[in-house]
Amino acid sequence: MARRRRGRAKDAEKKPLAIVVRHCHGLAEFGACFEIQRAVWGSADADLTPLPVFVVAAETGGQVLGAFAEDRMVGFTLALAGVRGRAPFLHSHMTAVLEAWHDRGIGRSLKLLQREDALSRGIELVEWTFDPLQIKNGYFNLVRLGAIARRYVANMYGVTSSPLQAGLPTDRLVAEWQLRSARVRRAVAARPERKRAKARGRGKVVRIRVPAELAALRQTRPEEAARLQAEIRQEFEHWLNLGYAATSVTVAGQGGEYLLQPWPKG
Which of 18, 40, 82, 253 is 20 to 30 Å apart from 4, CA to CA? Predict the structure, then answer.
């Protein structure tokens, strides 16, 4: 009998911790978001989003959402309220998950709560920016969540102190997440193992490659990384200016390809 009890205790220890995602409240939780931001990006304080911005976002129609494991925050999403024309939208400024908690679906759970909360308030669009050179982030945004990207902004935030940027210009694609669209509903309903990257609709499909070696070149040969970044920037700007949108991603190791296709305006 004693052996069985020890076996059950070991099984209980191996049980995955439950992750709870919810709105953050109060300075202590906003401060935890700030510290996670510091840990994830490793930026100098001057490049970090300050604590008062989290407070203002929560008080003015934005969102500060946290992911908690055993009452400890392990990830968060910060979004700011905006208006385009007469329609409200959210600009999701950052989503961060501590490295030890990667690959547990926490980022997706935060985004799904973001969608649910936005729709409950009549908001149908969420936008955010992401580095096109981070191909796995591109896959997450375009395939797992169903966003599209029709805008490319060169050096959007200037050169930052974050080691993740490695001194390169902060080029960004702008993700558009149309929360009620059939595309997004398909993406958020799909099981991860069944979701396949593909371009839907008619028209020529264009591919823009992000070489696998670029990840290492950012640290070892920054000049070569900058040259490749400039080539990728030119390709995106060319096709996006012709009315294409990035709609899907295929991943191969540290690299992969963006799939672009003609996309209607509006």
Answer: 18
Cβ contact 129:175 at 8 Å: yes
In this prediction, residues 208-216 reach a mean pLDDT of: 90
Alpha helices in the chain (DSSP H): 2-14, 26-41, 51-59, 106-120, 135-139, 182-189, 214-220, 222-241
Query: How far is residue 53's CA from residue 7's CA, in Å, rounded to a whole number?
Result: 48
In whole angstroms, give the CA distance from residue 216 to residue 232.
Answer: 17
Euclidean distance between CA atoms 216 and 59, whole angstroms: 41
Can you name the residues that pair with 218 across neighbouring β-strands? none
Provide the 8-state DSSP code for 88: E
Torsion sign over Cα 112, 200, 122, 37: positive
If you average pLDDT over residues 120-133, what whole number do you get?
Answer: 97
Give SS3 for 183.
Answer: helix
Tell me the percentage of the chain whose pLDDT exceeds 70. Answer: 88
Token pair for 189: 């309903």
Q: Token pair for residue 227? A: 């040259």
Range of weakest confidence among 30-34, 59-63, 167-171, 233-237: 167-171
Residue 222, pLDDT above cutoff 90:
no
Rounded CA separation 245/266 (Å): 12
Structure tokens at 84: 């385009």
Q: Are 152 and 173 in contact (CB under 8 A)?
A: yes
One-letter amino acid of 19: I
